[in-house]
Design brief:
Length: about 200
Amino acid sequence: MRIDGGDNLRAEALSCVRGDKLLFRDLNFTLEPGQAGLVTGPNGVGKSSLLRLIAGLLEPFSGMIHVPASVAICDDRMALDENLPLQDALRFWARLDGRAEDDCTAVMKKAGMGHLAEVPIRYFSTGQRQRARLARTFLTAANLWLLDEPANGLDTASVELLGKSLQAHLERGGIILAASHIALPISFDLQLELAALEEMETPL
C-alpha cells in the first residue's frame, strides 16, 4: 500500500515481485526532510523497481510505503518533447507545474545547459540528454527526488554541478533517494544495499 502526503519517506516490510521473480522483501527504512539515501547492489536486484514503486509507477507486492505529497523521478526516460528546443520543452512543464519562466533559465544553468537552451533535444549527446533529464527534475517543486543513475554519462564538471543541486535540495528540506554505481558528491544518511534473491515458484 502507498500512502501520500507525509513529511518523510518511510518503507515498512516492503516487498516487490516482477514476473515470477522476488526482487526484494521486507525492506524497512526512513528518510526525513533534509536527508539522502543511496541504493546500491548489482544489476537486476530491484534498484530501479524500488524507485518506480515509490514514485507510484509500480505496485508493491506487500508492505507499506509512506511518501511526501510531491515526488519527482529521474530515470532513463526523457519526459521532454525531443523535437523542441530545451528551453521550450522545459517551459511546457513549467506552465503545468506553476513555475515561472525564470525558473527554466535557472535550472538550465544548474544543469550546465544554458548554452544549449535553443537546441532541439533530439540533437543532444548522451551526457547532454542526462543533464536535460536532471534539469526537468530540478524544475519541479517536489519534496522527494528519486534519481536512477543520475551521474550516468556526465563528465567531472557536470557531476560537481549535480552535487551542488542535490545539496541545495537537501538544505531546503528536500529528500533524495538515489540509485547509483558512480560516486555522488554528497553525504548519505542511509545506504541501502540490495542483494540478489532466488526466483520463486510461488511468490512469497
